[in-house]
Amino acid sequence: MRKVLLPLVIAALTISTNAQVTEKEKTKELSEVVVYATNYKYLQKVRPSQTASIPVTLLERKVAQYDVKATGYYQDEYDVYEVNFYIPEGTILAAYDKDGKLLRTVERFDNVNLPKMVQQAVVDRFPGWQVTKDVYLVDYHEHRGVIKKYKLKLENGDKIIRVKINADGEFL
């Protein structure tokens, strides 16, 4: 009986220990962020006023933390490095200079949490319509700033319309 119970107890303890480590790693990944001094402005500009989904925030942090010089492809002779970052929810194409400074990004995310201003603007202008699909687009440039907009697919019964709206709730 001991030979059967002992392996089961050890297996149960191991499984619960692994689950706790995974949860801690997720929290650690969200809380500890090292951002180069040249790229912190990017995070400040693209950070939405409302809470964004965690995958979007994590990918934007990865973009800000990325070190061009640490890659095996770095060479002093190139002026710009373009790097693609992917997650299931979306993608970011980022351009860095040879010193690792983030120059510009083009971002696209599907079905993210809409800010309250966008949700309220849709409800006010299209009462009774449901948002069935959304695309969040961000265009960041270090000198021109950031442009954020949403492409929404709205349905009401068998009727479908598509609208574009910026992050402030203004229809385009």
Question: Biggest sheet: strands side by side, in what order?
Answer: 1-2-3-4-5-6
Quaternary form: single chain
The class by helix and strand makeup works out as: alpha+beta
On the 0 to 100 scale, the average pLDDT is 76
Termini Cα gap? 72 Å
Helix content: 25-40%
Largest sheet: 6 strands, antiparallel
**Can you tell me the residue ranges where pLDDT is under 50 for at least 5 consecutive residues?**
16-28
| Total strands | 6
What is the overall silhouette? elongated
SSE pattern: HHHEEEHEEE
Rg for CA atoms = 22 Å
Number of helices: 4
Strand fraction band? 25-35%
Explain briefly what this protein structure is.
With 172 residues, the chain is α+β, with helices and mostly antiparallel strands.
Give your account of this protein's structure.
With 172 residues, the protein is an alpha+beta fold. It has four helices and six strands. It has a six-stranded antiparallel β-sheet with strand order 1-2-3-4-5-6. β2 (90-97) and β3 (102-110) form a beta hairpin. It is elongated. Residues 16-28 have low confidence and may be disordered.
